User: Fold this.
Amino acid sequence: MVVRIGLVGLGKIARDQHLPVIEASPAFDLVAVASPHTRLEHRPGYLTIEAMLAAHPEIQAVALCQPPQARFSAARAALEAGKHVFLEKPPGATLSELSILAQIARERGVRLFASWHSRFAAGVEPARAWLAGRRVRRVEIEWREDVRHWHPGQAWIWEAGGLGVFDPGINALSIATAVLPRPFFLTAARLSFPMNRAAPIAAELAFTDFAGTEIVADFDWRQTGPQSWDIRMETDDGTLLLSKGGGALSIDGAAQDLPPEGEYRGLYDRFAHLIATGADDFDVTPLQHVADAFLRGERILVDAFED
Ligand code: NAP
Assistant:
């Protein structure tokens, strides 16, 4: 069965990943798009999701790629119209809105997919399988990148609900929550807010689990030069390193053979599978950890940030 899909929010990730992957997928047929200012040449475009769904009742599913602050109202409109919904990460701006969306999806009998693209990086599943039988002692996450390079001019990311450095950092948390054998929780956090911004530019986090595993994370947007998206896990039987955002894996220094990058192809295959089987994939744990950091964290003011 081919699923007729609409896409909302024609920004960087929609163009870089969603559109080419949907076009190449035998499971989906792109019907139309909705975005406040941007259009596609080869598909009908609308200002709002409501206008798109009204004009194209044949749409069965939507992918929501706008900033997270705008995602709830679009998701609600789609679910209430009986459409399956693919949420870009982070799935929303608050945890409570996500509970409401999950409830609407259940009532309507449609799929609500909280997508975490980093979980589909090539090294993640092999890392989970290797860690499953081992005792993890310490985890170090280092997610340091240059915000000027990766997020130029993205005003929403610095606004309340945009998450600041947690926008990339949540990808690390999505991997850690997928591969570590036990759930963990935040014990301390220090969030650095530029004095002219509503979202943090850096965060130091400490977590543990009931076995006392030490888990630390360093997220920083002020990194120039080499960028790092690394997770190092020391176990009682060797050290595992996931680097390149989960795209490379080594064990005790030996690089492991992995298939080529296919995060978004994996996401759309998963969405098609959920629709075909009626299964659910709606894990909000990574966002829960971010919310805990905002709840529990110490807040310090640092130099103003200008793009
Ligand atoms: P972006 O380049 O700033 O694009 C967001 C787009 O959303 C804008 O182009 C805007 O469209 C549209 N938009 C804004 N408000 C909207 C609304 N109320 N309704 C519908 N559309 C609206 O952002 P992005 O980098 O693509 O990120 C979008 C989401 O994808 C974020 O949650 C981000 O975390 C996630 N993501 C991004 C990346 C990445 O590498 N950039 C990777 C993975 C996931 P107009 O142009 O029409 O105004």
In short: The chain has a mean pLDDT of 97. Residues 118-255+291-302 form a domain with the Dihydrodipicolinate Reductase; domain 2 fold (CATH 3.30.360.10). Residues 8-14, 35-38, 65-68, 70, 88-89, 117, 154, 167 surround NAP (CB under 6 Å). The chain has two domains: 3-114, 118-255+291-302.
